[in-house]
Amino acid sequence: MTTSVTSPVGAAAATGTTSTTLTHRSGRWIDGWNPEDSAFWETEGRPIARRNLGWSIFAEFLGFIVWQLWSIVVVMLPAAGFAFTSSEAFWLISVPSLVGATMRFPYTFMVAKFGGRNWTMISAGLLLIPSILLGIVVGNPETPFGVMLVVAALAGFGGGNFASSMANITYFFPQKEKGWALGLNAAGGNIGTAVAQFAVPIVVTIGAAATLNISLAGWMWVPFILLAIWGAWRFMDNLSNAKADLAGSAAALREPHLWLMALLYIGTFGSFIGFASVFPKLIADQFPEFSTIQVGQAAVSLAFLGALTGSLARPYGGKLADKVGGARVTVGAFSVMALGALSLIWTLPLHNFWVFLACFLVLFAATGVGNGSTYRMIPNIFAARGLATDALPGTPAGVKIQRKAAASLGLISAIGAYGGFVIPQVLNLSQTTTGAYTAAFYGFVAAYVVLGTLTVLAYIVPRKSLAGQRI
After folding, report:
1. What distance in Å separates the CA atoms of residue 436 and residue 439, rounded to the nearest whole number?
2. Tally of CA atoms within 13 A in the half-sphere of 329 that contains its CB
3. Fewest CB atoms within 10 A around its CB: which of 205, 242, 264, 273?
């Protein structure tokens, strides 16, 4: 069945835009979507876009939960009868990030191939695999490490969801509201890490007396995943004008600024997701008495506060970037991250959990602000490149710049996620070679100083290649 809806011609004419005619086809396909037509957007477009955004956020939220499940499950394995080494535990924590970062590349193009609604159903359905398998394998302490590692790797499906979700939502909103919509979408996903680390210890311990029902860490999410699949099927839409820009992606990969910004994003988002994944283990290693806190029959882990702080700080990084410039905010974020890591080194000998927690929360807040500011820098950099090369908006060269900027957002988010693998493995190397984490944190301090310096030299010092613009 096909139906057509036309936005009011008079209203469209009054705003200087052409009228938009939507054609609804079976399978919830929509033809003729044009959010830049203000009359259409104010009447019919916005409600449709917001409905799709809501279910997209929910599906991505679950993706982050599944992606980060092993960060909290790993610290429970010893109590459940597993005898893995610390190095093996780090691999179980880090391999989902490695797979998730890699999955973001193909996921970026899946919306154009299958449709946003259809791919949300598929990608949400894929989350059932690692969730159910986790529920099975952790129920048997005899499960070999290799099997556990494969199941942990499958949790990387959840990491890929971010790329397809962001790609899908960008087609629904007009340029003036993309930042708001994408910011909500990203924040909704990031909070999934905190929710997983908060909810799992409660569910697996409540009513379990002296034992752990650790299998529930996987099974508890199955009903929510099924709800996300149903919601996408029932309420989301496919846009026929959502096209993959392979040429734009190829051009973006040849842009030096893409690689520099990817490096900066590894430092900000990579640090956020990397520290969020290892924080429960670091607490268990350094302060085992605070690994979980008993509240009635349930156990609560305070590790969720790190991911929650970083997630809530992200929007403020974007707002600050709009006011004073993304590069300046990013430099400030790297400075605070370096000081936070140094403070951890200096205060660890005190063996005071609350000081340890405070230092880490400062570090998490800085990573969140840096996430928002670095992501905000990307379109500004390409706009400045357009000015420097006379590729002005509305010209063919300007369109190419815009395509490169759009493609760069997805590619940089994928490359930055590899930090979620690097951070745990650097900590693992430090512990296995020196018996402590101090060397790793000194390395992080040095990295943040270098990244902050690069940001100053490339984006704060006026450059002809960026038309002297402040980024």
Report:
1. 7
2. 29
3. 242
CA separation for the pair 450, 468 (Å, rounded): 23
Contact 214, 138 (CB under 8 A): yes
pLDDT digit string, tens, across residues 333-390? 999 999 999 999 999 899 999 999 999 999 999 999 998 899 888 888 888 888 877 7
Coil vs helix vs strand at 77: coil
Distance CA 406, CA 148 (A): 37
* 413-461 pLDDT per residue, tens: 889 889 999 999 999 999 999 989 999 999 999 999 999 999 999 999 8
Pick from 199, 230, 195: nearest CA to 125: 230
Nearest to 101 by CA among 419, 391, 451, 434: 419
Exposure pattern of 187-196 as b/e (b: 16+ CB <10 Å)? Answer: bbbbbbbbbb
Burial category of 83 from C-beta neighbours within 10 Å (exposed 0-12, middle 13-18, buried 19 and up): exposed
SS3 sequence of 79-137: HHCCCCCHHHHHHHHHHHHHHHHHHHHHHHHHHHHHCHHHHHHHHHHHCHHHHHHHHHH
> Strand 21-25 and strand 298-300: pairing?
unpaired
Ramachandran assignment for 115, one of left (phi > 0), alpha (psi -120 to 50 degrees), beta (any other)? left
Which tokens sit at 463? Answer: 């450059």
**Residue recorded with tokens 């650790």:** 214
Distances (CA, A) of 415 to 101, 264, 323, 418: 7, 10, 27, 6
Q: Which of these, 156, 127, 119, lies nearest to 218 by C-alpha position?
A: 127
* Pair of tokens at residue 342: 């140094």
Specify the pairing of strand 21-25 against strand 293-295. Answer: unpaired
- What distance in Å separates the CA atoms of residue 471 and residue 459, rounded to the nearest whole number? 6
The partner residues of 22 in beta bridges, in order of sequence, read 5
For the chain, give every domain's residue range: 1-244, 246-471
Q: How many CB atoms lie within 10 A of CB 142?
A: 6
CATH of range 246-471; options 3.40.50.300, 1.10.510.10, 3.40.120.10, 1.20.1250.20: 1.20.1250.20
Domain 1-244: CATH superfamily is: MFS general substrate transporter like domains (1.20.1250.20)
Q: Which of 359, 322, 354, 327 is nearest to 343 (CA)?
A: 359
- Condensed to tens digits (0 to 9), the pLDDT of residues 100-158 reads 999 998 988 888 889 889 999 999 999 999 999 999 999 999 999 999 999 999 999 99
What pTM does this model have? 0.87
